[in-house]
Amino acid sequence: MNLKIGDKAPHFKLYNTEKKEVSLSDYNGKNLVLLFYPFAFSGTCTAELCTMRDNRAIYNNLNAEILGISNDSVFTQKRYKEEQKLNFELLSDFNKETSKDYGSLYDNFIFGTRGVSKRSAFVIDKDGIVRYAEVLENASEQPSYTGIQECLKQLQ
């Protein structure tokens, strides 16, 4: 499925690093930035998530919550979040259903791996509508932080 701006965001229910379920509906009434990424502890993923961590005040000022999603296990996500001192939730899409629903899943990735989350960014508005969608085929690229922020500004 390829999500387009104006589509209803697919519902999800995933586990966070504290082994608690988190769902899209938990963010009803809030703007949300969803970031799918391939692997915890990899260079580009760490650069991306640390950029979001370091700019958290910008997103707070734009009334937006941030969630990071990958196919890594809850245990891997927990260690990664702690080591990188990430100040937002990381969710485990270990079964790859949410990545698939968001059109953010590689069929084949590096080292012969299959079904790895594509680096993607989505802004979902307070009503659960997709307002920004960027799915990158090249995992070494990062999403447009300017594009995400501009979209959030328009939602103010």
Task: Write up what this structure looks like.
The chain is of the alpha+beta class and 156 residues long. The chain has one domain: Glutaredoxin. It has five helices and nine strands, in the order βββααβαβαββββα. A seven-stranded mixed sheet has the order 2-1-5-4-3-8-9. Strands 6-7 form a two-stranded antiparallel ribbon. The termini are far apart.
Q: What is the arithmetic mean of pLDDT?
A: 94
Distance between the termini: 28 Å
Strand order in the sheet with the most strands = 2-1-5-4-3-8-9
What is the CATH superfamily? Glutaredoxin
In percent, how helical is the residue content?
Answer: 25-40%
Helix and strand layout, with pairings?
Blueprint: E1 13-16, E2 21-23, E3 31-36, H1 43-54, H2 56-61, E4 64-70, H3 74-84, E5 89-92, H4 97-101, E6 105-108, E7 114-117, E8 120-124, E9 130-135, H5 145-154
Parallel strand pairs: 3-4, 4-5
Antiparallel strand pairs: 1-2, 1-5, 3-8, 6-7, 8-9
Write out key terms for the chains shown:
156 residues, alpha+beta, Glutaredoxin, seven-stranded mixed sheet, two-stranded antiparallel sheet, 28% strand
